[in-house]
Amino acid sequence: MKSFKIIFKNWFWGLFKPRWITRVYDLGFARNFLQIGLNDHSICLSGLLICTTLSCCTVNNAQNKEVVETFLFRVNSSWIFDSFKVSPDSKRVACGARAGNKYLIVIDGKEEKSYDGITKGFPIFSPDSKRVAYAAWVGNKYLIVIDGKEEKSYDRVGFPVFSPDSKRIAYVARVNNQWFVVVDGKEEKSYDDIGAGTLAFSPDSKRVAYAAQAGNKQFVVLDGEEERTYDGIGAGSLVFSSDSKRIAYVARVNNQWFVVVDGKEEKSYDRVGFPVFSPDSKQMAYTANRDNQWFVVANEKEGKPYDRVAEGTPVFSPDSKRVAYAAKVADKWFVVVDGKEEKSYDGITKGFPIFSPDSKRVAYAAKVADKWFVVVDGKEEKSYDGIGAGTLVFSPDSTRVVYGAYANNKWFIVVDGKEGKPYDKIRCLAISPNSKRVAYVAQVDNKQFVVLDGKEEKACDGIFTTGEGKLPFDSPDSFHYLAQKEMGIYLVEETLKQQ
């Protein structure tokens, strides 16, 4: 029997305790417990539910642009802000809500059927933004709801996964002590356990893979077929190639770890990192450790050993011809590009280096003492108190470099070496498809607004974006976003007129 731990947390000024459940996995395979409650800082939106749509078009002649604000709905005090989700196209919103002693999902302002509880982390949108799924429970039974339609109920269900084309869905379920995967409504073979976070569709949406456990052995199930058994499968290591034809994962026999590629075991090591396929699917690389020394293995060839190799690396260039990663010797970090070590620093920001879209340029953020700066093609830019995590980007044409920086308790954007106006906060940095325009969200006090090419747009109470955190450009001269103004949610669409 698997043990379950119940945790209750008060929130929303102590008025009630919402019943949101999380299925939590440890490293490797599921040793599950349930957690009831949200964090102590949950916030509720306030207002009155209205499902009316109204558009208002304004033309700003000074900036030569057209702005269309479409009123979507007003929010309700029963809605749970911690569950607020924005669709990938940034045009739809969904969240959880309370109705008496029941809980339900609200999609685009419309309430769905109520249940005894909704699992924490839901709802989720499909990649094309057209579909919505969530997990709910009635009594002691759990079920997945997809586009308002209830699936079969089980003793437990895990998080559903949409295929990249949004047409398929899969999730993990349990009956008694047996776990199995449900793909497109069909139950697959049951096992003692299903690997945490291993359920995945291939990029072409045609293949399904996950790790399973029977007895004390673990193995990958690919398209319904069981692969070779091992003592362990690396949690989260399973990955398909971009062309969907290849698959790789990390496996263990005794105390030795190795990568399995297309069913073939590579050399074993003391430890190995997650495998990474090149964009053209022809190459693969990963980090490995032997005798406390780390190195990169690319196409089965071991690179130079170091004291450490940074997580999230190695990284292939878009054309698949180059490889870069960050490494450490003693107390110094440096970037290695195509086998050549660059200048050493006190630190390299996690998630770097990055390649430009044309694969010719490399950039990363580095640290010396207590100052951070960006390094582009080996050249150090101005130093600051901090560089915004995940903000460093190349423009689509690879000619421009943009990032967020922090100095004197303020954040600002640096575009091609030029600093923008400082704000309390900045986020959602994006560059237009033609590489000519830069947009981001800024905040001053409690107001947020878009800054486009250095010019501030109309302020609102909040701006919502997807998990990627970028303002979505629809064309080189148009973009949109969701905004909160008092108790209303609006779709704001801006089009810049040609001179």
How would you describe this structure to a colleague?
- This protein has 499 residues and is mostly beta strands.
- Among the domains are: 1-42 and 78-190, no CATH class; 197-301, 6 Propeller (Neuraminidase).
- Helix content is 0%, strand content 49%.
- Strands 1, 2, 9, 10, 11, 12 and 13 form a seven-stranded mixed sheet that branches. Strands 3, 4, 53, 54, 55 and 56 form a six-stranded antiparallel sheet that branches.
- The chain is flat, with a radius of gyration of 25 Å.
- The chain starts with 19 loop residues before the first strand and ends with a strand.
- Residues 1-53 have low confidence and may be disordered.
Number of strands: 56
**Percent in strands:** over 45%
Morphology call: flat
Could you tell me how far the N terminus lies from the C terminus, measured between alpha carbons in angstroms? 70 Å
Q: Low-confidence runs (pLDDT<50, min 5 residues)?
A: 1-53
Structural class: mainly beta
Radius of gyration: 25 Å
Mean pLDDT, all residues = 87
Give a quick set of tags describing it.
single chain; 499 residues; mainly beta; Neuraminidase; seven-stranded mixed β-sheet; six-stranded antiparallel β-sheet; 56 strands
List the helices and strands and how they pair.
Blueprint: E1 20-23, E2 34-36, E3 54-60, E4 65-74, E5 79-86, E6 93-99, E7 102-107, E8 110-111, E9 117-119, E10 124-125, E11 132-138, E12 141-146, E13 149-150, E14 156-157, E15 161-162, E16 169-175, E17 178-183, E18 186-187, E19 193-194, E20 200-201, E21 208-214, E22 217-222, E23 225-226, E24 232-233, E25 239-240, E26 247-253, E27 256-261, E28 264-265, E29 271-272, E30 276-277, E31 284-290, E32 293-298, E33 301-302, E34 308-309, E35 315-316, E36 323-329, E37 332-337, E38 340-341, E39 347-348, E40 354-355, E41 362-368, E42 371-376, E43 379-380, E44 386-387, E45 393-394, E46 401-407, E47 410-415, E48 418-419, E49 425-431, E50 438-444, E51 447-452, E52 455-456, E53 462-464, E54 473-475, E55 478-485, E56 488-496
Parallel strand pairs: 1-9
Antiparallel strand pairs: 1-2, 3-4, 4-56, 5-6, 6-7, 7-8, 9-11, 10-11, 11-12, 12-13, 14-16, 15-16, 16-17, 17-18, 19-21, 20-21, 21-22, 22-23, 24-26, 25-26, 26-27, 27-28, 29-31, 30-31, 31-32, 32-33, 34-36, 35-36, 36-37, 37-38, 39-41, 40-41, 41-42, 42-43, 44-46, 45-46, 46-47, 47-48, 49-50, 50-51, ...
